[in-house]
Structures are given as C-alpha cells and as structure tokens.
Amino acid sequence: MADASDAAAALVGATGGAGTTRLTVELGTLLANDGRDVAVFDAAFATQGLSDYLPGRIDPDLTALLTDARDAPLADGLVEFPLGDVPGRLACCPTVAPFERLARAKSPDAAQALESRIAAATETFDHVLVDTPPVAANQSVAAVTATARTVVVAPASTRGRDAVQRTTGRLDDLAVGVDAVVTTRGELSVADVAVPEMDADVTAPTCLSDRSTATAVAAVADAAFDADPSTGDGAGLLDSVGEFVSR
C-alpha cells in the first residue's frame, strides 16, 4: 500500500477531447496488472465517459454519492472493471446522472464530499486516479486539491499547448504543482511524456496487448507515482520508456 499522501493523482484534461478518460483507464489497468489495487473516480461530469467502459447497471453513481447518497459507503458506488485474470483490482466510480443531479454535484458542498471520498479511497487502495475535467468548476478544484499528484493531459496541438499554459496558471492560483504534462496523439516540447495515438476503434484498455501503449503508459505511471509497473513481459518499466520522455 502506498502512503496516502502519494496514493492519489488527478489526471486533468487541459482541454476537452484530450483523451484523459482513455489514459486514466489505461493507467489504472497497467497498475492493476502489476498487482496493485486502483480506484478511479469520474469527476468529468459533463462527458461521463468512464461509464462507457463498464458493464451493467450503475446505481449509485459518483454524483449520487456526493449528494443524495452521501452517507452510503464508497463500496456501493464502485464497479469492477472487467480485466479478467490480473493480480490487482481496478474499481471505478463512474458518473451517470440526470442534469438536475449533475448541477447539484457541482456545488461547494458536493466538492467537499468528493474530497472526502478520495481520502477514503486512499485508505484501501494502492492508487486513486481522478478523471478530472478542465479546472473551471468546483469538482475540478476538489480533485486537484484532494490528490497529492497532478498530471495535465493535452492533445499534441497548438490548442493543447495553449491549454497547458492556461491550466498551469490556474493550478498555480490554487497552489497546486504539476507533476507531469502528458500529451496524447503526438509530442509537444512542454510534455514530460508523450503518448502515441491509440486506435479509437479498439476498445480500451490496449496497454496489456500493445507494446507501444504499455511503454508510454508505464512512463506516465513513473511520472505520476514514481511507479515501475510491469508491462506484462516480466520486466519492470520497459527500457524504451525513454522514447516517450521529452525532458
């Protein structure tokens, strides 16, 4: 079990469409495959993308745990990600909610409840990942202030570069440091790790079957947690991780 102070990371989308949810799923999968227990929270209320990866009925979802079901145990909202025969666990707390509850889940009180849920998860999971939208709402602020590590995710484009600068400024205002900048679908000079484009037609996760994805996601794990997860070939962090580190 990691120290609680280092167990949680917010993966912050610098802009919409950065691929933050996909990267969060891939990172959680690689850590679980290494024998770690991982919890994922979906704070990206507008897109609710984490639910697309999960089977079955979702009730309660994260927004309910922050509002109407605030007294319910976290376990009630966790859905096991179907990874098959892996030594660890990937438990997800997705968002699937009507607009009215989404609005209430963005309140300051709900943001405080999110902080409490994240803190509770660090007591029972080796790692906690929060899929976090751009820093412009209460749940985003709660996510980055309740976690020890912050990873900014942006597409490898001019828009992505500008969004990284904007996001870094907002995090500075919150006295939150950036542990790593990750670009998707290519490289930027501002990135610590560059993740190659992943086939949108192939269902995530692909890090257990595709070496280039595994290598890049392992580099993200190293940047976020100083972790050295197995990539499925009996080795630790692949020797080729350096290919994906910009500085």
Automatic annotation (TrEMBL):
Superkingdom of origin: Archaea
InterPro entries linked to this entry: DNA_Partitioning_ATPase, P-loop_NTPase
SUPFAM superfamilies for this protein: P-loop containing nucleoside triphosphate hydrolases
Protein name according to UniProt: ParA family protein
Organism of provenance: Haloplanus rubicundus
